[in-house]
Every structure is written in C-alpha cells, then in structure tokens.
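Objective 1b. Sequence-to-structure analysis of Regulatory protein YycH domain-containing protein.
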Amino acid sequence: MKYIEPVKSVVLFLLVMLSVVLTFMIWTYTPDYKFIEKTEGKEILIGPQKEMKDVIRPYKAIYRFDKEFTGTVSNSAMVDIMEAFQGWNILDLMPVDNNLKADSVNEMIRTNNSMTVFFPGEIPYSAFNTIFQFADKELPETTFNRMIIDWSKYNNKELQVFFLSGNNELLMRSHVSLENANQFVRNIIEPAKTYSTFKEVERDGFISLYIANDKIESTKYTYFIEEKPELFKDVLFTNLNNVVRTDESATTEKYHDGMSRMVIDSKAKSLTYVYPAAESSVRIEPSKLFTDSFEFINEHGGFTDDYRLVSSSISNNQLDYQLYLHGLPIYSDAINRITTVWGDNRIFRYKRPYFSFEKDISSEKEMKELPSGSEIVEKIKKLNNIDLSDIDDIVVGFYLTHDRSQSTIVTLEPCWFVIRNGISTKLTPDILGGVKNGLE
C-alpha cells in the first residue's frame, strides 16, 4: 500500500505531460495542402469550356441591295460575322425610341445598304463586352435580339448600328469607328451578293418575316451519342458521401443529399437538379443573370455541344440555351435545351440533356430537299390553326429522334418549324393541313 501514492503521482505527471504534448502538436500542426489540392481540388469537366461569344451567335443575316434581300443561315457565315465584330469601337450608344412600332422596324430593315443580324434570344449588352469596345463604361441594363448595320458611309470608315429589342420595344443607336471598313465590306458584305434571295413576308401591324425563296437542301444525320449522367452527379453534389440514390421507376432515378436533389430520366435522356433553399423571388438584372448562368454551366464544361442563348424570363431569373447542330436548331419531343433558374446567390434549378454528340455515322447521311420558305408561307396561310401574325419566325431545323433498338444512336431529320412564343411546331407535308404537335 505504501507505493500507491508514488504511482498515482507518476501517472498524473505522465497524463499532464501527454496533454501538454498533444496541445503543442495541435497548435503547431500544418496540413499537407499539396495533398488536399490533389484529392479535393480536382476539377471535373464534362465538356470543353467556352467563351461567351460561343453561346450568343446569330442564326440568320439578311442584306438589302437595290431593293432586294439576300440572306443566309450558314453557320460559317455566322462565325465570320462574329469575328468581324471583334474589336469594334461602339461610340455614343444612346436610346432612340422606347415605343418602337413594327412599321418603323420594317422600314429600317428595308433601307438599302444595310444588313440585319438575327439572334435567337435577347442578349444583354454586357455579354458583348468581350467582343465590342464600348465607349460607355456603364451599359444599359436592357437587351437586344437584332442588329441593323448601315454600311452606306463605310468610305468614311464609319458604320451606323441599331440595336433592337423585341421584348421591350426599345431601339438603341450607335456609331462604329472602323479602321478596317474596307475589309468588313470585302469579307461580310460582298459575299452576300451571291447569297440566296429572301422574301419579305409582310404582316399588317407586325414586324415582317424574312424567308428564303429557294428550295432548301439539307442533310439528314445519324449520330452516336455519349451519355454522362454520373459526371453531372459528381459535379452538382458537394459531398458525394451524403448522396443517396432511389429508383423512382424503370426510367427514373433520384439522387438527394438532404439539401438538393437530382432526377435522371433515362427515357428523355435528361436531368433536373434543384436546390430548394436557394429559391428566390428577387429579380436579377439581365447582365448579372447571364453572367451567373453562363459561368455556372461553363465551370463544369456544361456546354457539351453547340448551345445558344434563345430565351429569357427575367421575372423568373430563367435563361434557356437551345441545342444546335451545323448552325440549325434541334427540336424533339424530349428536352433539347439547357434551362437555368438562378436563386439566392446560387443555382436554384438546372434542367438539361445529359448526352452529347460523339460521332456521326457517315454511311447514314442522306441529302434532303425541303420546300422553299415562300412555299411554306403559302401553305401556312391556308391553315385555320396558325395565324401568320402569331409567328415569331419560320426556320429550318433538325427533328431529333432516339433509336428504339439502340439507345446510343439518334437521327436528326431536317424540317421546317414555326416558332411561336418560344415553342416550335414541326411542319411536315402530311400535317400541314392541321398542325397539332408542339415541341421544345
């Protein structure tokens, strides 16, 4: 018994020293940041990252020569136009009319020595900051979907440019000081003299439509597609250890981590991701909305194919990007758009296809001849359920179908489509007597 007290003292001393050592180790501990960077900081890219100009490309341009229109929807021509814009000095951008009438727009487009560039969606001015050199430091918080370029004074190295908005009926005007005006005319204007002629479809009280006069030759494609739903799961959830999967049906899978959820639809080959806590009714300015949406998608390489901004609902903080191929929009019964709804400082809803085009099957290519735009217009005039005054545009696009026997193969059939309020209706010879199907 006489050794109990000394033993207790020794044990107590060792415990005190151990506590001191552990405290010192905690205070002086430095984590291995290199290890953290390699394990937790790994960047996942689903596709190549892109620039803003890649998603705001126009889809059509028409030119006025001696009271005649020519035009093109060629993808290479649209690329050339965007490259020609690069570095333009936009001077004295100012509002001209905030209650623009359709007749005024039609007269401007009919003006000789002018070209009109059509964008599929409303573009914030700030999105062109990487293309144009704006003299004004503060750009208007508004949008445009057409540009009318007057080149009549190009010999003075000056162009007059009008920006038109279809949503808020606003017209802005500016001048461009262009050192290489001759090059612009040589590369962009002169080739347009050889383009197909376009017909103006006048509509009383509405902006005219502009349709190709000639028959359209296009190609039917068959593509292998690549599906990447797992990569989207890895990107969208911050802690994969907390993610739980449940099978809702034979074609539907649901993932959730307690804060967010993602639903995979293998039939439509689409996903929907929602972060409910971020829901917000606070309206975001167009410039910030576009920047936030673009950066969110681009950070994980989400523009896996040719996606272009086509519509916006500023009141809902929503932007839509349409899938394109060879310069033509793609529509189907499934989802062929990326939709983002921005919330409280982060994404609230993200809906999109999870596939991308991998390789076309050359042996399956087939040339198709479509009726001219003028023929289509005459047929539409005879329909009872489509009024020309309700149409935003009439375009050639691809109708996408999935191969039922092989899930990784899709077919893209060229067709005429009517666009009404952002909804596309396929026009086929057998249904032009009564069109009923609406497509995204």
